[in-house]
Amino acid sequence: MSNQNQRAVAATIDLSNSESPIWDDHQAAFYLKGIEQSDYAEKVGASLLEVIGTQTNLLDIGAGVGTVSRRIIADNALWTAIEPNHFLASYLTSHAAKWSYQLSVMQSSWQRLTANEIKPHKTSLAANTSGPVYDTKSFWHWQRNYTKDLMIWIVPAQDGPRGKCLSGFLSPELHGEAVGSSLETIVDELDESMQPHQILTVDWTFRQDFSTHEEADQYFQHNFNATADPEKAQAIANYLTLHLQQEGEQFFASAAKKSAVLIWKFN
Ligand SMILES: C[S@@+](CC[C@H](N)C(=O)[O-])C[C@H]1O[C@@H](n2cnc3c(N)ncnc32)[C@H](O)[C@@H]1O
């Protein structure tokens, strides 16, 4: 890939009113380590590929490191990756030369990009990102504007919690998140003319390894016991003793996930 094809749009992200703030680099690195150990790409990517085939021109919104998108794009495909997080955008940029795609990385949220900056693409993908869940209607119109033929959303559809990657590993009292698939809410938000033409669901498992039991305990205490309540700290510690799995030197936690894949075909 030539450097000319890379475009990094530096942007100061201010989404302080958003329900889903952009990750910091620490959260992004945690996600990347986990998603690489999970069967997300293998299960969701393979199912999507079976339905839509290989793509040659993709706008990827909230691209992460292209875990799913790299399963569906052809060699030499034109791939525009919108990714606001610095760590993930840098990962894409630093891997671009090794990959056989014409990759443009735009480090920005979708809210900050306008028609002056992006052209319509044949296919667009928003996989497990905040737009479809928190800004359903306005995001739909925004994405439609930049899509010629095929538009795809991948959204959480498990019956369990859908906040943090590993909340589904914990019991409901410990994760404290709302539970239930977001699919119905999303579809209800959309007008008749905006309804997806096809929906499929795919089960997969998020898995995260920890080097030590203490590292796992620190992660869960930090993320699910923000006030350091001593009773809750003990309950989390007890739960980990019972449920954390050991494999060789490593400890791992996993959470069952379901993704709904929503597909619109315009041509
Ligand atoms: C769970 S990750 C999914 C990454 C990738 N699409 C995948 O399926 O593996 C969510 C991604 O959406 C990005 N994101 C969150 N809010 C965004 C926004 N407003 N605009 C663009 N991307 C956003 C995050 O930085 C993160 O990389």
Automatic annotation (TrEMBL):
Gene3D superfamilies: Vaccinia Virus protein VP39 (3.40.50.150). This is Class I SAM-dependent methyltransferase. It comes from Methylophaga muralis.
